[in-house]
Design a protein that fits this description.
Layout lengths: L10 E9 L9 E9 L2 E3 L7 E3 L4 E4 L1 E6 L17 H15 L2 H18 L1 E9 L4 H15 L5 E9 L9 H12 L4 E5 L5 H15 L3 E5 L9 H12 L5 E5 L8 H14 L2 E4 L1 H7 L16 H6 L4 E3 L16 H11 L15 H7 L14 E4 L4 H6 L6 E4 L2 E2 L16
Parallel strand pairs: 1-4, 6-7, 7-8, 8-9, 9-10, 10-11, 11-12, 12-13
Antiparallel strand pairs: 1-2, 2-3, 5-14, 14-15, 15-16
Amino acid sequence: MDFRVLPSGNLTLTNLTAPGCLCGDDTDLSTISLGIRDGMLCAPAADLPAVDMRGAMVFPAFVDMHTHLDKGHIWRRAPNPDGTFDGALAAVEADRTANWSGSDIRARMDFALRCAWAHGTRAIRTHLDSIGPQAAISFPEFTRLRDEWAGRIELQAACLTLIDRIDPDGGGEFADLVDLVAQSRGVLGCVTFPDARLRDRLRAFFDHAGRRGLETDFHSDETGDPDSASLRVIAETVLETGFDAPVTVGHCCSLAMQPDAEWRHTLDLVARAGINIVSLPMCNQYLQDRVGGRTPRWRGVTLVHEMAARGINVSFASDNTRDPFYAYGDLDMIEVMREATRIAHLDHSRTDWTNAFLTSPARACGFDAPGLVPGAPADLVICRARDWTELFARPQSDRIVLRAGRQIDRSLPDYAELDHLMR
């Protein structure tokens, strides 16, 4: 059998290898068979032609819960001059001011979605820069794309503004942004950092979200400065206000640099508040502790093992793609899984980390996560690899992606499509 081509129609895939946590047991890997009938998974049956998959690993289609589709693929016209976080901020701000028209954003977002589709992703949350007039440009383009991609990739958008632009006394520019997010069926988001009125601004933020019934998603403490501790203040504010809609916080890099007593106290609060955490290992390793002429001293990731041990819902995601915050990437969740395993030492650890790329982000965002059970859509990613070391040793470029039981064309879009935007 040519691994890259499956017979069409209803069939049973035998001798598949799946992570045990997706099969309802605590083993590392399990051997399973999956029936496919009329685009749905079913129990293997005698009337379904059997195909021996020779141990190939199988996953449900992936969930990528933290991306920046609006920034994606601008590197050629807006490279980061020195690879630092400040360099990224300046490069993106200049490019946004000069180039982020509706047609520019739409072309780049659609290009990124076609990449994610080919790699086997079924759901994405993106952040959209929402400072000044940009939100009114980006959100309408996103909502049109969300409708066009319905049935292929489920999409959500979170606004991205700065905590110091929120007036604790209400009103102003942020109130208008909340209205736009609510009208767009979006998620309320912002970047937090040390601020003299952080607690007051967060109270106002959650008040806006609560009154409009919005979920929330933060970028927080994306720094190696141990004094950056806004995650703790977010958790305290959630507990103080009783805010009961889902709260997600991304990055949280500074936790890894804080004294033991401080990070332990913060994580205990995060667990009590029921906050979801998403780690972005590729981008954070790229940016954090980058100083010219000096070898970095740490990996940039947050304390994912300590979080999981407390029952905190931890996920991993792509973050930026070919922009000043991360020069590489392709919205490929198998790449994210491979690099997260290496960077955060997920191997020699729990046997359920696979959930951090599937069910955990789905739970955080409210996406469906049907898994590998009968009655679920036959949305599968099948890799030639037969175990973890084979999976992570190669990029699995010859993987099979099934959507509704049908093998999709995995041809990736050509970067040359974007050349006219890079001039």
